[in-house]
Amino acid sequence: QVGVTEIIVNTHHFAGQVTEYLKANNNFGLRIEVSQEDVLLDTGGGLKKAAWFFREGGAAAPFILHNVDVLSNIDLKAMVEEHGRSNSLATLAVQKRDSSRYLLFDQQMQLCGRRFVREDRTELVRPKPDLQALAFSGIHVISPRLLELIAEDGVFSIVETYLRLAGLSENGYRITGYLADGAYWRDLGRRESVEQAARDVKVSPLLSGLESK
Q1: Quick one: DSSP state of residue 26?
Q2: How many helices and strands (H and E) does the chain possess?
Q3: How many CB atoms are located within 10 Å of the residue 50 CB?
Q4: What's the burial of 208, exposed, middle or buried (CB within 10 Å: 0-12/13-18/19+)?
Q5: CA–CA separation, 88 vs 172, rounded Å?
Q6: Residue 28's closest CA among 10, 65, 1?
Q7: Which residue of 32, 38, 180, 184 has the fewest C-beta atoms within 10 A of its own C-beta?
Q8: Which residues lie below 8 Å from residue 195, measured CB to CB, with a gap of 6+?
Q9: Which residues pair with 122 in a beta bridge?
Q10: What is the rounded CA–CA span in Å between residue 137 and residue 185?
């Protein structure tokens, strides 16, 4: 619906079931590749392993990275448009909601650090006044040039890369937030969350488009 025609899916647990599901549905008429992870590589390692897909043909268009375990109707088209206007390496969907971890942004929505609530710990890479603490939604729009700047290896979170680059903003490295307040978002990492999401989709007309997912 947002114009995506090429997809790569990271697989690990029950990888064969995912592959068979795609095959049985003829890849839904899209080009869908699979990136098998024998060891879970986290969001950064997984992206680095699949980077070949986004480099094909010297691709210059931004791509969407979407965590598998979230259900959302965040406007991806609007995110891509905002990403294009900001000239950022990555644009992260964020919301004002309760979380155990927050990303910290300045008044221009540039990434400055993160906060761990349970550990009562804050990391700043760009100290600025009046920082906003916002919850990351696991949905990103990324410029292919970011791939050349990933120095981390092995198992790592892409947030580690974002924070390192945000600390080098004098080099023109912009990591920005896209405020998606008002959009539906739910983490599906627990059984009760999946059950609640199923109920939400049934009762809300705003979520009717999510039923097929």
Answers
A1: G
A2: 6, 11
A3: 19
A4: exposed
A5: 9
A6: 1
A7: 38
A8: none
A9: 115
A10: 7
Adjacent-strand bridge partners of 91: 141, 176
Whole-angstrom CA distances from 38 to 18, 21, 48, 61 are 15, 19, 14, 29
Q: How many residues does the chain have?
A: 213
**Is 92:138 a contact under the CB 8 Å cutoff?**
no
* DSSP three-state, residue 62: coil
What residues contact residue 113 under an 8 Å CB cut-off, 6+ apart? 103, 104, 122, 123, 124, 125, 126, 127, 131, 163, 166
Average pLDDT estimate for 9-20: 95
Residues in a beta bridge with 186? 71
Confidence check: pLDDT of 212 > 80 = no
Bridge partner residues of 71 (DSSP) = 186
